[in-house]
Sequence to fold (335 residues):
Amino acid sequence: MKLQTLRSIIEKKKNKSEFAIITNLSNGESEIFEKDKSLSKEMQIYSNQINEFFKLKKNGVIENSEIFVETYVLPIKVIVVGAVHIAQYLVDFSKSLNFEISIIDPRGYFASEQRFPNMKIINKWPDEAFKEIETNENTALIALTHDPKIDDPALQHALKKKFYYIGALGSKKTHESRCQRLKEAGFSGEQINSIHGPIGIKLGGRSAPEIALSIIAQLVSETYKK
Amino acid sequence: MKNSFDEKILEEANDWVNANQKVVLATVIQTWGSSPRQVGSRMIVNEKGDFSGSVSGGCVESAVVRECIGLIKDNKPCKKLEFKVSNESAWEVGLACGGEIAVYLEQVN
Fold:
């Protein structure tokens, strides 16, 4: 691989664009493929197969050829509501994962630069905050405040936008009353049941990093089910 | 959606190049049967044999490092390696898991 190619891959990852690296295994020549960008002459005959790999977000060698396709997908957007202690560990764990965390918390004293260095925190109520973030069925929500005033609007937004993962912190009892409120707000049983509550897989841990680990484990597991 | 794991290995390769090291990328390009790392998994190796990342669960890394050093010495651009179950003759190493993998080596130049 040419150093120039390597550097433009890093740049494209930084700029959060989706692309694929196409390598001719017989001579080591590689190029970057992007949607709506034309390929070099030699690669054009593989155009259909490359597009297929790209669409399926798949890596592999094109059948009966010496062409290797490696696709790069965007990090998964994860919205955390509540700049609480657990959120600090979620940020730590996500550093080695392909998750891009945004934190929403209207309470200024929680969302401080000191507690979350180099982290973009949206210091607004969820309804306002979601106007700034583009969300869809590839987005995940982790609600951590267990305060209905803050969590509920975020949960409602996530349900309406069909987030692939929605988790909410709180005991079984807290979750029951949360489900009741959502029912009264007009959400269906199926929608409400899609919320992971109490959040996380059963690890048995109680400390903030342990709870964060159980949440991240559930999130990874749900991500692979998609 | 796949790939919830970002290894940042190419970023590290760039750092090594910036530190005037010669770097070979070793990438898993094909797998058959059960294999520890999926297609696209990668490790990097420099001329001294330092390495980062992985192409298996530690089964074939030593052979890959040796081959990468050879590639740099011979100044060849690329090479394809295949590893099978206990491949005694060529590598002394093999995949205990019973799978097979193909690893592609390429110099950053």
Q: What stands out?
A: Chain A has two domains: 3-72, 76-225.
